[in-house]
């Protein structure tokens, strides 16, 4: 075994191996932005569905409460540590150099790599006006970026016909990397439901669309590094978020304290 890009590589099979930990029963991978980009580069064009989830405290607590959602995250090729409390849990079991793989930052890394490699990019989520701003800003930032598909889904359950049409549109656009910004857990559940139908790499990136479109203010780096982004976002959107954070933050702190709450796993081969 040899180290490469923050993970292990099985040279016999030429397949990447990643380190992981189980946090409150949810697998989280000790990855980096660069490592995720390397995985995607190997997946693009393989004709298969792949799923990357940027998961923080909210997603982990959801997985504690709902076995079905825990199974959703288990199906992900990679579950990356989207919040500092999750990063601290990984460091606690030996991944001393682990850094946050923040969904919005991950999106920028993948878009930059995609612009260089000519990947066909898709966007699913947010309001139509937000998508237009997002495309305008990202195409200005990465001039060679190739965004071939974008869709703003309605705020209701989709019919079978609508779902089928969305799958057809994504296939006809030949999307290779699809960013999904619906918020957790909705975005992960949506991706899970597409795994047998959409042959591309799908990334659940949370509020990345709004941040990069400029419709939502991102917490300063110092606030993020202190693990207080949840407080910043609560102050920005108190009516929408107060119930969520009043529940999940105290529960995560209490549940994560016991030593057995976080367990290092054996390295695994990524599909």
Q: Can you tell me about this structure?
A:
- Helix content is about 45%, strand content about 20%.
- With about 270 residues, it is of the alpha/beta class.
- The strands form three sheets. It has a six-stranded parallel sheet, with helices on both faces.
- Helix 1 (about 35-45) packs across helix 5 and helix 11 (about 230-235) runs antiparallel to helix 12 (about 240-255).
- The longest helix has 19 residues, at about 240-255.
- The chain is globular.
- About 40% of the residues are buried.
What characteristics describe this protein?
single chain, about 270 residues, alpha/beta, 6-stranded parallel β-sheet, 4-stranded antiparallel β-sheet, 12 helices, globular, disordered N terminus
Order of helices and strands: EEEEEHEHHEHHEHEHEHEHHHHEE
Query: Which runs of at least 5 residues are low in confidence (pLDDT < 50)?
Result: 1-6
Please report which band the strand proportion falls in: under 5%, 5-15%, 15-25%, 25-35%, 35-45% or over 45%.
Answer: 15-25%
Radius of gyration: 18 Å
Assembly form of the protein: single chain
The dominant shape is globular
Report mean pLDDT, rounded to a whole number: 92
Number of helices: 12
User: Which secondary-structure class do the elements indicate?
Assistant: alpha/beta
Number of strands: 13
What is the helix content? 40-55%
Largest sheet report: 6 strands, parallel
Main sheet strand line-up: 7-6-11-10-8-9
- The separation of the N and C termini measures 18 Å
